[in-house]
Amino acid sequence: MITNFGKVGVLYGGRSAEREISILSGTGVLQAxxxxxxxxxxxxxxxxxxxELAAEKFDCVFIALHGRYGEDGxxxxxxxxxxxxxTGSGVMASxxxxxxxxxxxxxxSKNIPTPRYATVAPGDDLDKVVAELGLPLIVKPPLExxxxxxxxxxKAEEFEAAVALAAGxxxxxxxxxxxxxxxxxxxxxxxxxHARALPIVEIVAPQGNYDYQNKYFTDxxxxxxxxxxxxxxxxxxxxxxxxxxxxxGCEGWARVDVLVRESDMRPFLLEVNTSPGMTGHSxxxxxxxxxxxxxxxxxxxxxxxxxxxxxxxxx
Length: 315
Known about the structure:
Cell wall formation. By secondary structure, the chain is of the alpha+beta class.
């Protein structure tokens, strides 16, 4: 665990569809670290090369990138090659966590509850999927985040257009049963047996529409932290979140999104974000505040966990 940070790079921006949000996250992190006297510098991989990153001679980096090329293991692999310690999950966990389909396969193997699903592509027999999963359905590109490319399909005739939209982002599309209920998220900090869940946040969006605009750019969404839930259900959700985090091999920090079904109060895990948002609307800082961890302290704690994850070859 790092105690003397040296020169720190804050990686933000990037080339993904979530660039705008990453800039907001990275700016917040950069200011927070600088406010604690840390020699932190911003670095945008969309505007500068890996050679320039190496030339900066950062002692460690805080990854505030979201989505492709920053949260999917590709950048993590480059940092391993450069020998630069970094925050968050390693190459494998980042790659798996970015892929909602692979995540589901692993979770189901560990008996972690997640909504039923099917994989589809343009031209597939969509009637068969509707017969299997029912309606409504959620159709999404499995490698995107921030609700990008997602459609709620309420009628069978809407399915084809939803698949076409998602296919603009990914070749294989995730069709998932729609769970009617309350929406929650759980931040997890730490690694391995030291991983711990922060208080649960409940998300109450206008007409249940927690889309990109509502998520980042309006104050119409209500957040309740800690979420008002029975103690036993709170403990169950937090345990599932930590188990899900460990199952993928996550490190440092992440956020697990959860739905609790209205009919029977059963929780279902949707996805894990291995580089969550750190904006003024973001949920990990909100959960941290509920247990007395300031935004600045949270950034420092995450940075302190930075390391290279790959085992060095013996020789």
